[in-house]
Amino acid sequence: MSNALGFRLRRDLGYRLYLPSGSSRRDTLPLIVMLHGCSQDALSFANGTRMNALAEDSRCAVLYPEQSKHSNPLRCWNWFAPTALEGEGEAGLIARLIEQVTERRPIDPRRVYLVGMSAGGAMSCLLAVRHSRLFAACAVHSGVMYGAASSPMQALAAMRSGPSAASIAEARRVACEAGESEFMVPTLVIHGDRDTTVNPVNADLIIEQLQARAECIDPGGGAVLASDEYRIESGERTCQQRDHTQRGRIVLRKVLVEGLGHAWSGGDSRYAFNEADGLDASRLIVDFVMQYRRSYDIGSRESTVDSATLPAQIGG
Questions:
Q1: Cα–Cα distance between 21 and 12 in angstroms, integer?
Q2: Structure confidence at residue 295 (pLDDT)
Q3: Is the pTM here over 0.70, yes or no?
Q4: 74 φ/ψ angles, rounded to the nearest 5 degrees
Q5: 10 Å Cβ neighbour count for 166?
Q6: Segment 107-115 mean pLDDT
């Protein structure tokens, strides 16, 4: 990985950091945090998603935390561990890593974006709830809602057929317990409708959980309203998109890619869990998240949108 620097944190949490060419300490770059899936590492995730090429064009940094085989033999993030669910454990390590990189590198703390695939997507959902103050926007590809499981067996069951009704109810309750420092992180959810590893029902549950969270955090903002569904041709795939708005701004977007299995849409198929056909998920993610920035106004609990409105359709 060109322009990449590798380091170590406690508990063998490694990472790679990509900085666009010509960047210096005088810059204030956006930061995209990329959490890989099981059986991936930072380098294969970067190469498969081609995110660094987009980062070069968009002038942003990319941070790739890396799970160790010591913590999980398949390099899965342990998003179901009780300590992580409380915001500590691996979730706390990732959050502290983001804070350290933001402080030590030329990063704009108002423009830190969180992205995850599969187990990394599940960890992203967790971080966006437990460490929401860090992020301006989030994207979850083939992931699972926060609190869907609290053990490995429950995690496998949730991935296969969705979490239990009791887990869903408890997760929504916890997600809605917003303290003064918590925010609603605008989120893009992408999933393949042929995913047999993480059931597509999980995408709907992420949206439902975050919709309830948005209404809890900002009760004065009214209900989160769903748009009509768009059907869009993207390469050799058809996509279904639906936006959810509150106070006239998009807080949630779901994109279902028809015919896609458990793979990063539009990725480099030479790497596992990437499929070249169809929607360029990396481009879609960058276009979505980069339009938000965190507001640090006193009493604010939302990200602001740089443009008046987000595109109504993919590629719009």
A1: 28
A2: 79
A3: yes
A4: -100, 10
A5: 8
A6: 97
